[in-house]
Amino acid sequence: MKKPLKRLGQAIMIVLLIAIALLVYTFLPIKLTTDPALAAGIGRGRRDPSQLPEVSFTLLKTGKMPSRRAFAYRGGNWAESADNGMAAILVRHPQATFLFDTGFGSAVDQHWLTIPLLMRKLSTYVKEPTAAEQLRAQGISPSEIKWAAISHSHWDHISGLDDFPGLEVRMPSQELDFIRAHRYPGLIDQMIGRLNVHPFEFASGPYENFEVSYDPFGDGSIIFVPLPGHTAGSTGMFVNLRSGKRYFFIGDLTWAREGIERPAERPWLARVLVDIEADKVRQSILRVHELAKAVPNLVVVPAHDRRLHEEIAAQSPIK
Ligand SMILES: [Zn+2]
Ligand SMILES: [Zn+2]
């Protein structure tokens, strides 16, 4: 009787050790293999900065979630604490003042309860003044905001929308289809019925190394491009300024700038928790990596890289 039990114990130990070894492997600093073919088309749709309208933007920090750098990208340091920032981007264009993502809103405590239990156990959050509060403090009434676009429909990007009732919310039709298919249920399921959603198509032609884009003002200053994988309709936003400065807000494609620079994806555990199609995320990361390499003055901003948020907020409004 004792021998089979001992053998069973040994077998369980071996399986456990293999599982731990596999988990550790998923955090090792393995870079993605770059694909130079994805650089094709870089330069398309660019305008001379002097032809662009007077646009400025401000980054509003609305909260954060303390984490470890190791969770943000493969190769991140376990010992390094890293705040995931939650932000809204306020863009002032001559034709409209609008938001890109909204960060944490005033009802974030309720919204937090809509995320999976495992994620709540693994993390916590810290509130900062909401986008609506910061706008009021700057003398901007919510009615001056003409519309909001979202990088994707996850709770931490849409929570603040509740503070702008009736606001037109723009997202690509792929994201609306994704929401309606309940591929990633949560806060958006509860909110979608009360949102004034205006889906758009990427019908403005190629832009840089993206085959399709959406230029809401038709002037080359603000360009949305698809970055699918994290969600079906994940979207990035270029902000091209008259000064020649250029920014690219990439949503949750990566959680840290190193994800694009190295390039490196999230560790497996994070991928299975948050991404719907890891292959598409990889492809999008490699595409942005090629662009960032070819255009050194382009500032690529992941939606949660608090270090970049601090830098940008300190310079805001950026013209
Ligand atoms: Zn997300
Ligand atoms: Zn996010």
Furnish the topology, listing elements before pairings.
Blueprint: H1 2-25, E1 56-68, H2 69-72, E2 81-93, E3 96-102, H3 108-112, H4 117-122, E4 126-127, H5 131-137, E5 145-149, H6 155-158, E6 168-172, H7 173-180, H8 187-191, E7 196-200, E8 222-226, E9 235-240, E10 246-249, H9 257-261, H10 268-274, H11 278-294, E11 298-301, H12 306-315
Parallel strand pairs: 3-5, 5-6, 6-7, 10-11
Antiparallel strand pairs: 1-2, 1-4, 2-3, 8-9, 9-10
Bound molecules: zinc ion (2 copies).
Largest sheet entry: 7 strands, mixed
Secondary-structure content class: alpha/beta
Number of strands: 11
The CATH superfamily name of the largest domain is Ribonuclease Z/Hydroxyacylglutathione hydrolase-like
Low-confidence stretches: none
**Net shape:** globular
Compute the separation of the termini in Å: 77 Å
CATH class of the largest domain: Alpha Beta
Element string (H = helix, E = strand):
HEHEEHHEHEHEHHEEEEHHHEH
Q: Report the CATH topology name of the largest domain.
A: Metallo-beta-lactamase, Chain A
> In percent, how helical is the residue content?
25-40%
**What is the radius of gyration?**
21 Å
Number of helices: 12
The molecules bound to the chains, other than polymers, are: zinc ion
CATH architectural category of the largest domain: 4-Layer Sandwich
- β-strand amount: 15-25%
